[in-house]
Amino acid sequence: MKILFFGITRDIVGETMVDARDLKEIGTVGELRDLLNAKYPRLKDLSSLNFAINEELAEDFEAISVNDEIALIPPVSGG
């Protein structure tokens, strides 16, 4: 599983990579969200945080597998 961090999520997580051993028990987007919130508590402070599986927005109940590319999409402002 490849996890991509964009915008402020990259700032929060930094250059560290999520330990692959932590991901073995992950089966859904919600479980991944919980793991990342526990490891990086500042993620919980974001007003919204979307997840995408293979470039498609995903809900917490959706299954993920080791071959998926997961992207964390933080709130975006424009003007």
UniProtKB/TrEMBL annotation:
Keywords: Nucleotide-binding. Pfam families: ThiS. InterPro entries: Beta-grasp_dom_sf, MOCS2A, Mopterin_synth/thiamin_S_b, ThiS/MoaD-like. The keyword Nucleotide-binding applies. GO terms for molecular function: nucleotide binding. One of its GO terms (biological process) is Mo-molybdopterin cofactor biosynthetic process. GO terms for cellular component: molybdopterin adenylyltransferase complex. SUPFAM superfamilies: MoaD/ThiS. Belongs to the MoaD family. This is Molybdopterin synthase sulfur carrier subunit. It comes from Christiangramia crocea.
